[in-house]
Amino acid sequence: DLATFDLDVTYDEFVLSFNSYTLYDGLGIISDDAEDWSNGDDGFGTVNLAEVSYMLDLSGQSDSFTLATIIFDGLAVGNSALEFACVDLGDGLGDAIDIDSLGTAGVDVNPVPVSRSSLDARLRPCRTDGNQEKGRSWPSGKDKH
Predict the structure, then answer these.
(1) How far is CA 67 from CA 27, 50, 52, 140, in A?
(2) How many Å is the Cα radius of gyration of the chain?
(3) CA–CA dist 122, 136 (Å, integer)
(4) pLDDT one digit per residue (tens) for the chain, 145 residues
(5) Angle CA(4)–CA(95)–CA(69) in degrees, nearest 5?
(6) Which of the 8 DSSP states describes residue 26?
(7) Phi and psi at residue 26, in whole multiples of 5°?
(8) Is the pTM here over 0.90, yes or no?
(9) What residues does 70 pair with on adjacent strands?
(10) CB of 99 within 8 A of CB of 84?
(11) Distance between CA 114 and CA 19 in Å, rounded?
(12) How far apart are CA 123 and CA 141, in angstroms?
């Protein structure tokens, strides 16, 4: 049974920006049965996630469950590999759990096409009273002093 994990996920910080992460309840509910020891994003392309369970009986734990979800925002068009740089897993006695293999993943960030009509709407002046565009006065030839 899994009682603790500490893992680093690397990504290309020029393509992706870390947004957030969520830990799930496979090791217990955070603040009740488990603690979040994650360092989060280091700002240089690595996200650290770590959790410790304080549950004495993990025998009801599923054979397969989601540990966490990481959310990224796209910064630039391109591809970013997502790889495990470091993974430590432990059981309820504090003994290490061996890992046979780790997978990798990738994220493609693609440009979002802009329709001609939405582009035209953004470029058209927005006059609210005939003399103003976005709060700026248009020259009218008359001074209001």
Answers:
(1) 8, 10, 12, 64
(2) 25
(3) 17
(4) 999 999 999 999 999 999 999 999 999 988 899 999 999 999 999 999 999 999 988 888 888 999 999 999 999 999 999 999 999 999 988 899 999 888 889 999 998 887 666 556 565 555 555 554 444 444 444 444 4
(5) 20
(6) G
(7) -65, -25
(8) no
(9) 21
(10) no
(11) 24
(12) 25
Tell me how far CA of residue 123 lies from CA of 59, 71, 77, 101, in angstroms.
62, 32, 24, 52
DSSP-based three-state secondary structure for 19? strand
Contact call for residues 115 and 81 (beta carbons, < 8 A): no
Report whether 49 contacts 67 (CB < 8 A). Answer: yes
In one-letter notation, the amino acid at residue 102 is: L
Cα dist from 90 to 70, 76, 121, whole Å: 21, 37, 56
Q: How far apart are CA 80 and CA 15, in angstroms?
A: 6
Length of the chain: 145
The per-residue b/e assignment along 71-96, b for 16 or more CB within 10 angstroms, e otherwise, is ebebeeeeebebeeeeeebbebeeee
* Both structure tokens of 77: 């068009």
Token reading at 88: 């430590």
Tokens of 87: 């993974």
